[in-house]
Amino acid sequence: MNPNLLQLLIFIINIALLLLLFLILYYLQKEKNLLDKNKKAPEEEIIKDAKIKSETIIQRAIQKAQSILAAAELKGLSLVDREKLESKKLAKDYKKEITGLEKELKKKFETSANSAHQSYEEFIGSIESKIQEHLTGNQKVLEEKSSDFIDNAKNSLNSFTAVMENRVKQQVDEEMAKTRREIEEYKTHRQKIMDEKIVDILEEVLLLTVNKKLSLADQSDFIYKALEEAKKSHAFK
Amino acid sequence: MEEKELLSQLISLSYTKTDITRRLRILREFFEQKYYSSGGRSLEEFLKTAKCTKEDSDMLLSLDSKFYKNFTKSNTYPCLAKLDRLLNKEEVIHVYLPYEPMAEEKEKIGSWFKKNISKNVILDIQVDSSITLGCAFAYKGIYHNFSLKYFMDIKRREISQLLDKYVQNP
């Protein structure tokens, strides 16, 4: 039994005894007051008897209370001892049980730990092997894809280079042809200008060199030649 | 005789507008001294002392007497004025030459025009130094260039071929 409970019980018993005592004292006081009230001279014997009785009752009550108290104390103490013994025994049993349980739990825990460790190791091993498999597989796939990619890139680059080369060559050829055309056009244009201007140039050259050298007769002949030509070409129509 | 006929006679014996204008001036002077001064001389005497060329005097002397009878004291000025006006209305061929021709040359050119174009053609001979050999003229509002440039233009292709030949075989 719980020591606290035991103490509480003792305390309650003590309180109860105290209350009983007070009750007795109250009745006595009441009795006395009643006696005092009805204080008529001739009944002093009754009063004395009553006093004696009351004192006897009180004594008895006190003894009873004391005996109850002692019994309660004894019982309480025996209870406490019993409790102490029982609790000691309980504690011993509990300790024993706990130790046994501890050992058992330890054993079980060790077993579980070992099995968990083993399972964990197995799991780790399997994971490792799976990871390794995956890695190997991925590496293989990566290598294959890389080599495919490289091959594709190489082919694309080659074809792109070829296309660009052709395009550049084509453009260069076009530019060259265009430039040649422009040069030819320029040449033709210059030639045309030269052809148009050559007469003017020759005329000026002749003017510079011949005009002063020609006699008036020669010049006059030229005038008539010009007039004849004008007549022939119907300029006077 | 009408003024047109008179002018026609003058034109037929003259080549250039300048000559006709000059001769009309000489005629005016002649008629002025004949009709408006004392002691009018004959044409021959007048022409001997007048400021005119031999060609002018020859031409005026070659005119018929009927020509001179058309000019009286009263109508000389109006007649000459009308002749002047009619002259200005006549078609003129402006001839551009590279040099100033002598009188004989002008006569030759004028004769050519009268022989080949019309006997009533009037010329206006001017000098254009930009013309190299040959000549140019403006007739009926159209300018014709028959200078060296024209002849060279005709031979342009041959000239170009000649130049090409020299360029290819320097």
From TrEMBL, chain A:
It comes from the Bacteria. The keyword Transmembrane applies. The chain crosses the membrane at residues 6-28. Residues 84-111, 169-196 form a coiled coil. Keywords: Coiled coil, Membrane, Transmembrane, Transmembrane helix. The keyword Transmembrane helix applies. This is Uncharacterized protein. It comes from Candidatus Gottesmanbacteria bacterium RIFCSPHIGHO2_01_FULL_40_15. The lineage of its organism: Bacteria, Candidatus Gottesmaniibacteriota.
Automatic annotation (TrEMBL), chain B:
This is F-type ATPase subunit delta.
